[in-house]
Known about the structure:
Layout: H1 2-15, E1 52-65, E2 68-71, E3 83-86, E4 89-111, E5 114-135, H2 142-149, E6 155-177, E7 181-205, E8 207-209, E9 217-219, E10 223-228, H3 241-250, E11 254-267, E12 280-297, E13 303-306, H4 314-321, H5 327-335, E14 340-343, E15 347-351, E16 355-365, E17 368-377, H6 379-382, E18 395-402, E19 406-409, E20 412-414, E21 420-422, E22 424-428, E23 431-435, H7 439-442, E24 450-458, H8 466-469, H9 476-480
Antiparallel strand pairs: 1-4, 1-24, 2-3, 4-5, 5-6, 6-7, 7-10, 7-11, 8-9, 10-13, 11-12, 12-15, 12-16, 13-14, 16-17, 17-18, 18-19, 18-20, 19-22, 20-21, 22-23, 23-24
Amino acid sequence: MYRSKVCVLFFFVVAVNISWAQNYQAINGSSYAGSLAAANNPAAIVHVPYAWDLTLFSAQVKQATNSFAVEKFGLLSSRTNATIATLPGSRKRFIFANQDIRLLNARVSLNTKSAIAFGANLRNFIHLGSSTTNWQDTIFALADFMKLNIGELPLWGQATGAAWAELYATYARTIVDDGDRLLNGGVTVKINRGLAGGYARVQDLGYSPAPAGTPGYVLGNGTLQYGYSANLDQLDSNKTTAQNRRDVLQKTYSTLSADIGLEYILLTGEDEEAGGEFAYNTKIGASIMDIGGNKFRYGGRSRIAMAGKPGITDTLIENKFLDVNSIDEFNDSLATIVGAFSTLSGNLNIYQPTRLVINMDQHLIHNFFLNAELTIPLFPIFSNNSLFIRDMNLLALTPRWELHSVGVYLPMLFNNRQQFWVGGAFKAGPLLLGTHNLANLFSKNKLQNGGVYLAVTLRPGKLYDRQAHYPGKLTRKERRSLSCPTF
């Protein structure tokens, strides 16, 4: 029974978060990414070979864990009798999940040297991590778990998640253009509305064998702290869905965040312009994404508890939480087994996954390109004590064959938990469809690692050709100074 409860908990954590973070990995660095490029580097919206584009809708989900497996379930296989099983073994355990929905994201070239982009997004991140813990199929009671892990003390664990809506506006322009190379810069400003947030932390948790003649274990020291956004207190099963939605949204707060980026482009030679004015040899981008955070108020049931009450055994703990069915009942039970118990109040600030993204895109031959990307999280470097959410990206290498209307992509991903995935994607007209991990399609036990993405983007039917509109003996620098077409 104990194991089944843990499995249900893991399933709930992932299931509630696969609902709404830029990870359209296949098109990062591509000149055809259009408005979606702003979510990887705001400077990347300038060097685009059409006057405008409109992403009507896009969505992506991405998750990674070493804690459980979804068995007997594949995207292209039978889904009957699917189960979720906790993975045995001793390891530091983690769960990552991030998702987004992007609505009516548009990009418009103002002229050859500047462009804007704007749109609305729903985004969500969650991260759980723990100290080294041992889990086996033989665990049926809390004492079994404590026996297996007494050599790993003290134990710790943490979980942080946030969901928000954002309206964004991006402006980018060419800073340097000498006809052979470009330097573009861009900035995005976002107005955020925090929809939900929460965290939990277990620190310095210790226990010891019970005194001689008494079976089991006795709780020692440790701290448990958990908080959530106050707007979730408005949820009431007696209200309609519309009423709950309205009440929850009325208790949210707005914040500002930003992205900044630069992009250096080494153009092809004058005699190598089969790709037109937008052909290039090398493109290098650097951006700092998601500078800012989301503001909430602590919910009324947020608490901090400190262990230290004598005589708290594993059997007593199990009995106290055996019939707990709500957070109020959980708080009541927890208060009876700890030395100190208090309410958390005031502001709850959860920072967004601020990170440095370095992207290099190399033209190989004809319509073949190779993209490499490095993602470095910045918040752990400067402030490891603040509440912040994490992005799982680390390294990516993506070969691609791409034209205006069609493309084939093979992203290879190595995340910051040392998992290696080979993904795949294709573009056909306005449709982009991809998976972060091809194993999701064919394996029946890999769905917990990977994810999918989909985008529908409208573009002009033809690329813009300046030379066709302005024939004559002009240098490339002179042609690049000509205005873009209207639309």
